[in-house]
Design goal:
single chain; mainly alpha; 12 helices; globular; transmembrane
């Protein structure tokens, strides 16, 4: 038996599961620290593409390609979004295995606020006073980290920017999440396969290496752990209010931060704490403003 409440609960569990997986991924990629980052990203693309394209072909045949055939502009947009998400994945994996998990978590804390800025700059959206305040506080946090921690948080800002641009381009597309991911995967598949073959031919590959089969198994499962949260997220956003999903998304960078500090032993001194607290305050202002506005119609209707 299914109904709106059942769909809501399933969507809530799917969204929570997706963000928990994303939050714990640094520990997974850390297990593959001996594999070059480019090889990991190539495996991630190939195996996630196999899973997503296989699922789409099994369930829909080739019907999911109809949107691209009917809208040539869509093909170009998805090629561009595929490049942004591949770059984001590659930088993230490199950063995790180079000991920058805390900074990657900062990037995904900043991302929602950067989405707001992109809306103003590229879509000419107008910000409410609370949103301007959130952006200003977050900017202060980034500046604090830059000048007091001693280095510009380029990893965090590049991750946030690349993922925000991915989301912006996908916002311009008129295609469901899963077929869109399938088309993006199709664009990335051949370059990723070429990179894997080049790695094997030059002795830099890790297929059937000294740690086989564990390394190979982890690389293959990495593709599944890339695709499954995206599928779960796509399922959830159709059944759960975006305001709820927006709050749940902070599970991922919070868990990443915990992994970096408590498990992987990265430093988190006073200057970093102050910078992060400023950004958390900004997120709280942004989230509370969104919740209050989402409830106003319901209150008025009651």
């Amino acid at each position: 038996m299914t109904g709106p409440m059942t769909d809501y609960r399933r969507g809530l569990w799917m969204a929570t599961g997706a963000f928990v997986i994303w939050g714990l991924m640094p520990l997974y990629w850390h297990l593959l620290k001996a594999v070059p980052s480019l090889q990991i990203i190539a495996h991630r693309i190939v195996w996630s593409a196999v899973l997503v394209l296989g699922w789409l072909l099994l369930k829909q045949g080739t019907r999911w390609l109809r949107a691209v055939r009917e809208q040539p502009r869509l093909a170009g947009l998805l090629a561009l979004s595929g490049l942004f998400i591949a770059f984001n994945w590659g930088l993230y994996i490199w950063a995790v295995n180079a000991g920058h998990v805390v900074e990657t978590s900062l990037g995904y804390f900043i991302n929602p606020l950067l989405n707001v800025v992109l809306g103003v700059v590229l879509l000419r959206e107008r910000l409410r006073a609370a949103q301007w305040l959130a952006v200003a506080i977050a900017t202060a946090g980034v500046l604090w980290l830059t000048f007091n921690y001693g280095s510009f948080p380029w990893i965090a800002l590049t991750l946030a920017t690349s993922f925000a641009m991915y989301g912006f381009i996908r916002k311009l597309t008129t295609i469901d999440s899963l077929p869109g991911l399938g088309i993006e995967s199709g664009y990335l598949l051949l370059p990723a396969l070429a990179l894997l073959l080049w790695g094997e031919s030059t002795g830099q590959g890790h297929v059937l290496d000294a740690w086989w089969p564990w390394t190979d198994l982890l690389l293959v499962l990495g593709g599944a752990l890339t695709a499954l949260p995206l599928i779960g997220f796509a399922y959830a956003v159709r059944r759960v209010p975006l305001s709820t999903v927006g709050l749940l998304q902070y599970l991922a960078p919070t868990l990443q931060l915990v992994c970096g500090v408590a498990v992987l032993g990265e430093p988190f001194g006073r200057d970093r704490v102050i910078g992060f607290v400023l950004i958390w305050i900004a997120l709280a202002v942004y989230a509370v403003d969104g919740l209050l506005r989402s409830r106003r119609p319901a209150v008025a209707a009651g």
